[in-house]
Structures are given as structure tokens and as C-alpha cells.
Write a structure and sequence with these properties.
The structure holds 2 protein chains of 2 kinds.
Chain A (H helix, E strand, L loop, with lengths): L1 H6 L2 E2 L6 E6 L4 H10 L3 E8 L4 E8 L2 E8 L6 E3 L8 H12 L2 E3 L47 E6 L11 E7 L2 E8 L7 H5 L7 H6 L6 H16 L5 H29 L3 H22 L8 E2 L2 E2 L8 H24 L1 H7 L7 H7 L3 H5 L7 H4 L20 H25 L17 E7 L4 E8 L5 E7 L2 H11 L8 H8 L4 H4 L1
Parallel strand pairs in A: 2-5, 6-7
Antiparallel strand pairs in A: 1-2, 3-4, 4-5, 8-9, 9-10, 11-12, 13-14, 14-15
Chain B lengths: L1 H10 L20 H8 L3 E7 L5 H8 L12 E3 L8 E5 L4 H13 L5 E5 H6 L21 E3 L6 H12 L6
Parallel strand pairs in B: 1-2, 1-3, 3-4, 4-5
Classes of the chains: A alpha+beta, B alpha/beta.
């Protein structure tokens, strides 16, 4: 069936294996049903206002398929895909807030819009002036789903959280200490990124993409450049492509080190935080020395990378990665043998492989629940096809499994860093990127540390961005966290939440 | 347990000297003398992400690592604004966070200090002002010290915090 669908599709520039298929009003939902039947995962759903269009991107076996559905003239709604892909529900709500193009027969509560701008204001509608704001927006009354019964009460948490974390609201309905239901409310850090993209030049969009989610700066800026280079028919030099992979693995190592320390700490084992935060600092300093930044948010640029690595220091970076891998393996043994840590990690926040598949859990958390998908292996862009990445995978779906995936991936990324340093091609690090023609469509996908990030890009006239939609895997995984916490006790929530470590900024945009 | 102790023993103390305060980061000089007199050397910080991309938070986290060891200076991060002397705020202030930031500021007991972190906290940065962004932190609450950078180095963040609680040079 997938082959028949792909045979009807046309190539989409940018990501490897990307195809697009136009759907009519009649076959939009049936086609999505056919795609669902192949076992594909929903990657992203977004809309445009002029003309009213809805796009859905799917990760299929060996292909990335984008379904485009231009609504009939005057029509502003389309059949919801939430019955086929539960993860579509929030994406449809967010898209409706931004463009007014809404799903039918679906949850119609606003998602990104709180009380800061009126319901009739659509930031992505054409010729919309900037809404000036009117003093401090009032608190709004969001209709949470209420749980009733003897002894049920609610705990509201956030948006300002107790740690050094991004803001969001969690509404727990509990009995005693047990969580009956968690409902999230996000959108607090909505900064208008998609509207801002449409006011950004194509050759500057990578800077904004890098700031969609600061912990995934390399992944987002690479995905943006992949889309742009696809539509501009520019090929970044081999050395630049390999340096991008070096930066992406460096970002994965930094984030995994941070999380492994924080997870130990959340289990009451401060030793873990002290050790891993020390290793992370060593790693960031090595990156600063060799690649010029601790966090590589301005490293990937259209046509290549912003600067070459300091060749003479590259062996030291490889040694540093090796040293960190050795130390991390030793601390892993300590975690594995620590009764208190095991007691907190094992069987906490379990997402079974069956639930993960039905809800579309993706990325790192998916790989801890039997969803063995990794773009670096399953849909590799250069240079990953040449690197033979070992994909991590566990089935248990609990905090312990998500910790194990991080340990496995940390070791593999450290190996990749050494291999990339060994095999780094010589040559230039950047080429000119010509201005693409107005209306050209491209897509970029990169396996960030959290999972696959996507950037869909449409060029405008005169080097402008017409439309750019960045997508973080947190969209898929936030709703699954609501399921993971059911039946657990409230004090385990910080640990379970951290084991997913989802992005607020990358989601709220 | 033996492995854990062995590891702790083998690393030793790796904390580096704290940076100097930096008067160039000072935005206003309000009530500082009073606060400094009250605080002595202990300081409680409540961090508020008012809309950042999370990049600044990563470097703020680093202050707690053994290298910068902010707790060794008598400074700690607390879980409630009601326990805090200083708000460490990253921006830009998302309009959806504006009310929450104001309420956090109001919940912090007087006298209090505010340090804005990052290019976005200082000026609105790449996000500026829009239907969704109120721009720099100072547009919403009073700011004493502002530390630019995208994200700023942990030593600059620490210098900003120390600037807020120390007397201006030559005071």
C-alpha cells in the first residue's frame, strides 16, 4: 500500500526520501487512514491561511510523506486526523489558533492562545497587522476536564515551576497520593516564532530556527538549512556535512549528560548530578575550544558551517569524548547497583510498547518503549548513511528504560565523535546558497537528541521566508506523559517528567 | 558505596574562583544599600523563565555544577518566590507569561533584586516585541542588573548576580 501511495507522490526537496502527495477534500482522511494502516507515525501537522491548506507529514518505512490538502474555496475546516493519530489533536488546535483553519469534529479549545490576544486575531493570516497588546493580559479560565468522585481533589502546578525549568501548567486530579489524571496546559512561552519567520530573510532563518528550543539548536538549524539547501539546490561541502554531524552528536552528548545527572538527583542521588554536571562542563569547554561555542547555536549556517573546527585540537575532542564515555560507564554501574536509585527508576512512569505505538510516542522516549525508530538509521541524511549508527532500544518503557537509552546513546555518540574526527574530509566548509524561486517548498528532518525535528519551509519573493513551520518531537510526547503518570504517586512526577525531558519552548513556538 | 566514595575522593575539589562583580552590567541603583545590609553573604534566588528558548537555563544550571559551585558562595536557588531575595529572569517575556511574572515579582518579599539574563532578557533579542512577546524583562518588572549573551557564559551570569548584591566599585 505504501508503495502505491509513493508512486502517486512527487519528490519534495530537502530531507532524504521526502515525498509529497496532494489530497482532495474527499480523500484527505481516507489517504491518512491508508498511511496509518502502513504503521507510519505522524511527524507533524500544520496549516496555512492563503490559500487555506492543511499539511500532515508522516514518517513511513523508508520515506517521509507529506500530505497536502488545499481546502475548497471559502472552506475553513477539514476532517480531523485525531481518530487515526491521537497526537494530531493538539497540533490541530494550535494550527487553528494561528491561522483559523480548523479541524472538524475535534477538541476546539484554544491551545496556544491564552488571554493575550483576542480570538479573532490570527497571527498567521496574510496582511494581519501586529496586535499591539492592551496592558497585562488577564488570567483566563481554561476548561480543564474535571474528575469527580469521593476524595478526588486537584493539585494545580505552574506555570512557574519550582526548579530551573521552563513554564507550563499541570493539573493533577488525585486520590490520596495516586494520580488519577494529569491534564497539561502549555503555550506559556509562545513567542510568535512562526509569524516572526515570515518576517525573516531566508539567509537568516537558521538563527531563529536555532532558538526554537535552545537545547536542540544544532538539530533545528540543520533541519532549516537542509530544507533551504534542498529548494536552492545547494550542496554543502563534505567537510561541513561531517562537522554538522559532529555538532549534532556533541549536542546529544551534552543533553544526555545533563539529563543523566538530573535524573540521579531527582531520585535522591546528588552524587549523580555532581559527577554528570562536571562531565558536561568538561565537554562544553572542549566544544568551546574546538568549535568556538559551548552551545552551538550559530554553527550550522546555510551552505555549510559558520567556521571550521580547530584542526589541531580535534584529537583532543576525540580523547575527551572517550574519557567521558569511560567515566559514564563507571557511573552507570553505580546507578545500576544502587538500591535506592533502582527503586525509584524501575516501573516508574511506564509506557508499554502497545500504548506507545497507539499514541505515536517518538524519539528517545519512543526507543525506550519498543518504538525502534531513529532517523540516523532509518532515513539517514549524509553523513549518517556512512556511519552505521547503532540504534538504542528498550521495551520496558519506564524511567529506568529511558535512562538506559540515554546511557546507550551517550556511548554511541562518543564513538561517533571519534569516528567523525578520524574520517573528517578536508576541504571548504561553506558554499554560496542562491536565492530560491518564490513558492518553492522544502522540508528538513534531523534526529535531534530528543527525537526527530522537522522544519517545513516555503520561500517567498526577494529572499524572504513565506512560511516556516518548525516541529519538535515534544508535540507527540507531551500527551503520552499524561498517560505515563496515571497510577503513579505525585512525588514521582518530577522524576517521570524529567525522564521524558520535553521542550516547552520548542512546543509553544 | 565504595565505588561512590572512591569516585568522590579521586575527583577532589574542582571549584574555580568566582568572577569579580562588573558595574557595566548595572541598570539601576535602587535600594541597593538596604538590601546589601540585609543580605550579608547569603542570597536566595528564584529563577523565572518568562519565555526563553531554554538556552539560558542550561547555563544557569551550570552554576550549580562543582566548577562554578554557586552554593559555595552562600547563594542558592529556591523553589518559591516567597523565599527569594533575587529573581533571575530570562526572556523575552512571552505575553502568556506576563501576568505570571508580575505575580512572581509581587510574591517576592521587599527589598528584592532582579537580574535579567540573556540577550532576550536584556533587549527582547531575536524575538523582539510582537503580539506574543512583550520584549525585555524591564518592560514588565523593574530590573537592577542585565547580563547579555546568547546564552551568557556561567561566569558572566555569576558576575551579574554578584554585581547585584555588591556595592558599586568606589562606593
Amino acid at each position: 500500500m505504501l508503495r502505491a501511495l509513493l508512486a502517486k507522490s512527487t519528490e519534495l526537496p530537502g530531507a532524504p526520501g521526502a515525498m509529497r502527495l496532494a489530497a482532495t477534500p474527499e480523500d484527505w482522511h481516507p489517504l491518512a487512514g491508508d498511511i496509518a494502516a502502513t504503521g507510519a507515525r505522524l511527524l507533524s501537522l500544520w496549516t496555512e491561511r492563503a490559500p487555506a491548506t492543511v499539511h500532515a507529514a508522516f514518517l513511513c518505512d523508508g520515506a517521509l510523506l507529506v500530505l497536502d490538502h488545499e481546502l475548497p474555496y471559502g472552506e475553513m475546516s477539514y476532517p480531523s486526523l485525531a481518530d487515526l493519530f491521537p497526537a494530531a489533536a493538539r497540533m490541530q488546535r494550535a494550527a487553528a489558533d494561528l491561522t483559523g483553519v480548523a479541524a472538524r469534529d475535534a477538541d476546539s479549545r484554544p491551545w496556544l492562545r491564552h488571554a493575550a490576544w483576542p480570538a479573532h486575531y490570527r497571527p498567521l493570516a496574510p496582511r494581519t497587522v501586529e496586535y499591539p497588546g492592551d496592558g497585562t493580559p488577564p488570567a483566563d479560565d481554561y476548561p480543564f476536564v474535571r474528575v469527580s468522585g469521593d476524595g478526588v481533589h486537584e493539585i494545580p502546578v505552574g506555570p512557574v515551576h519550582a526548579g530551573i525549568i521552563e513554564p507550563g501548567h499541570f493539573r493533577f486530579s488525585i486520590v490520596g497520593e495516586k494520580v488519577l489524571k494529569l491534564e497539561q496546559r502549555l503555550g506559556y512561552v509562545h513567542k510568535g516564532i512562526e509569524r516572526l519567520f515570515a518576517r525573516t530573510k531566508l539567509d537568516a532563518g537558521h538563527r531563529l530556527a536555532a532558538r526554537v528550543s535552545g537545547d536542540s539548536a544544532v538539530a533545528f538549524s540543520w533541519a532549516y538549512c537542509q530544507a533551504l539547501e534542498g529548494i536552492a539546490r545547494a550542496d554543502a561541502p563534505a567537510r561541513a556535512i561531517w562537522l554538522r554531524a559532529l555538532a549534532l552528536e556533541a549536542e546529544r552528548i551534552a543533553n544526555h549528560l545533563g539529563d543523566l545527572g538530573a535524573l540521579g538527583n531527582d531520585a535522591g542521588f546528588a552524587f549523580g548530578l555532581a559527577q554528570f554536571s562536571r562531565l558536561k562542563e568538561i565537554w562544553l569547554r572542549a566544544l568551546d575550544a574546538v568549535l568556538g561555542q559551548r552551545y552551538l547555536n550559530d554553527f550550522v549556517v546555510p551552505g555549510g558551517v559558520a567556521r571550521d573546527a580547530r584542526e589541531e585540537l580535534l584529537p583532543r575532542l576525540a580523547d575527551c569524548a572517550r574519557g567521558i564515555a569511560v567515566e559514564a560507564a563507571a557511573i552507570r554501574a553505580i546507578y545500576d547497583e544502587h538500591a535506592g536509585v533502582r527503586d525509584r527508576f524501575v516501573e516508574a512512569g511506564t509506557v508499554t510498547p502497545d500504548l506507545a505505538r497507539r499514541l505515536g510516542l517518538i524519539g528517545l522516549a519512543g526507543r525506550a518503549s519498543g518504538q525502534a525508530f531513529d532517523l540516523r538509521v532509518d532515513l539517514p541524511c549524509a553523513p549518517y548513511a556512512e556511519l552505521a549508527v547503532a540504534k538504542a532500544g528498550h521495551e520496558e518503557g519506564d524511567v529506568a528504560a529511558r535512562v538506559a537509552v540515554r546511557f546507550d546513546e551517550l556511548a554511541e555518540s562518543a564513538r561517533l565523535v571519534r569516528e567523525i574526527v578520524d574520517r573528517l574530509p578536508a576541504g571548504s566548509t561553506r558554499v554560496e546558497v542562491a536565492e530560491p524561486s518564490a513558492g518553492a517548498n522544502g522540508i528538513g528532518v534531523v534526529e535531534g537528541w530528543r527525537g526527530p525535528v522537522m522544519v517545513a519551509l516555503v520561500a517567498g519573493a526577494g529572499g524572504d521566508v513565506r512560511r516556516c513551520h518548525p516541529h519538535d518531537p515534544s508535540w507527540q510526547n507531551w500527551p503520552v506523559l499524561e498517560h505515563a503518570i496515571i497510577g503513579n504517586i505525585v512525588p514521582d512526577f518530577p522524576l517521570i517528567n524529567k525522564s521524558f525531558n520535553l521542550s516547552y519552548s520548542g512546543h509553544d513556538l | 558505596m565504595w565505588k561512590t566514595l572512591q569516585k568522590i575522593g579521586s575527583i577532589g575539589v574542582i571549584t574555580e574562583p568566582a568572577p569579580e562583580s562588573d558595574d557595566s552590567l548595572r541598570v539601576t541603583e535602587r535600594l541597593q544599600t538596604e538590601i546589601r545590609a540585609l543580605l550579608g553573604r547569603a542570597l536566595c534566588i528564584r529563577q523565572v523563565d518568562a519565555g526563553s528558548c531554554n538556552g539560558c537555563e542550561l547555563e544557569i544550571h551550570a552554576l550549580n555544577n562543582p566548577v562554578y559551585n554557586i552554593e559555595g558562595l552562600g547563594i542558592k536557588f529556591v523553589a518559591s518566590p516567597r523565599h527569594a531575595d533575587l529573581l533571575l529572569v530570562t526572556g523575552p517575556v512571552a505575553r502568556n507569561m506576563e501576568l505570571a511574572l508580575k505575580r512572581t515579582y509581587d510574591a517576592t518579599p521587599d527589598p528584592k533584586l532582579v537580574v535579567a539574563i540573556g540577550d532576550c532578557g536584556c533587549t527582547g533579542g531575536i524575538f523582539g516585541e510582537s503580539y506574543a512577546s512583550a520584549g525585555r524583562v524591564a518592560n514588565v518588572i523593574p530590573v537592577d542588573v542585565a547580563v547579555p549573551g546568547c546564552p551568557p557564559h556561567p561566569n558572566r551570569i555569576l558576575a551579574g548576580i554578584l554585581t547585584a548584591i555588591r556595592a558599586p566599585r568606589g562606593d
